[in-house]
Design goal:
Layout (H helix, E strand, L loop, with lengths): L1 E3 L5 H13 L7 E5 L7 H4 L3 E4 L5 H8 L4 E4 L10 H18 L4 E7 L12 H13 L4 E7 L1 E2 L7 H7 L1 E4 L7 E4 L1 H13 L6 E5 L5 E2 L1 H12 L4 E4 L2 H10 L4 H15 L18 H14 L1
Helix pairs in contact: 1-7, 3-4, 4-5, 6-11, 8-11, 9-10
């Protein structure tokens, strides 16, 4: 039995698609925890065991982990969490206890790059994510943390601005080259680990994309794919903070995002070398063709 958390999220939904359609599970059942089962596609609901609720709820994870061999673990957004520890490790503590009590053998989690860097101790959400990894590893379960850079798919939050104004914003220097990964590639990495559970111990699995890109590179590619000029506007951290405040985010979460973005501009994502093991296949151009371009026409 493989259990998938956040099955309606961008990574979780793609993982479900891979397991159900592209790589049919070899004699294994799939179980999901979801707050609203109606958000699952009709083609999925009849093929998986569904538990309704939050995977931060001790009673829910206790039922979900019974008979479960492997878990895909993602902490959901918590924009008004009182602290980052509560949002990450606090949310995970019930599951960590249940991993041991139910003898779960393998866990694959979505995490971040940065372990071992000077910035890792003060990188906001990255720091909290790495602490969550340590909590899971402390249970003795075999654990693989998918260590990710910024997602290409985060640009979908700016589709309106890209389409209508030809502008996308970020807080990093325009010429800083960094890795980027497509969420589909992260889901594919998770699927491979969940289906072949011959691995043991604790480790990170970086998912770096095929190339490092700067904001200048990105606007050139977006302009070419979309057939219209797109320019980059660097946003100050103060303006970034103000925007999150306007969306109603809590102070602790806002501070964490600001610290994370500052650490990214300082290079926290560039410490892992790209190899055949750490590179993922989807180029930014391919992602723009397959995801961004259709989104701007929707």
């Amino acid at each position: 039995m493989i259990l998938i958390t956040t099955p309606t999220g961008r990574i979780g939904s793609r993982l479900l698609d891979i397991l159900l359609n592209e790589n049919p599970v070899r004699g294994e059942e799939l179980r999901v925890i979801v707050r609203d089962p109606e958000k699952l596609p009709d083609t999925v609901r009849g093929r998986v065991d569904i538990l309704t609720g939050s995977h931060g709820d001790p009673e829910v994870v206790d039922r979900a982990f019974a008979g479960t061999d492997a878990v895909f673990w993602v902490v959901p957004p918590a924009p008004r969490a009182p602290s980052l520890d509560a949002a990450y490790s606090g949310f995970t503590r019930a599951a960590a206890k249940a991993f041991t009590e139910h003898g779960v053998g393998h866990v694959v989690g979505v995490s971040a790059l940065g372990r071992g860097t000077a910035a890792a101790g003060h990188a906001g959400h990255v720091t909290a994510s790495l602490a969550m990894d340590d909590l899971i590893a402390s249970t003795g379960v075999a654990y693989r943390a998918l260590a990710n850079p910024t997602f290409m798919d985060n640009l979908l939050r700016q589709v309106t601005s890209i389409r209508d104004d030809g502008v996308f914003t970020d807080t990093v220097a325009a010429d800083r080259k960094v890795p980027m990964a497509a969420t589909g590639d992260i889901a594919a990495a998770a699927a491979g680990l969940l289906l072949d559970r011959s691995w043991t111990g604790t480790d990170e699995v970086p998912v770096l994309g095929p190339e490092d890109l700067s904001a200048n590179d990105m606007v050139r590619i977006m302009s070419d794919v979309l057939g219209r000029p797109v320019r980059y506007e660097r946003q100050s951290l103060d303006d970034f903070r103000a925007g999150l405040t306007g969306y109603g985010f809590g102070e602790a979460v806002i501070d964490g995002y600001v610290e994370m973005m500052r650490s990214k501009d300082e290079g926290i994502d560039v410490g892992v070398p790209r190899t055949s093991r750490t590179a993922s296949p989807t180029t930014f151009r391919a992602w723009c063709e397959e995801v961004l371009k259709p989104a701007t026409r929707a």
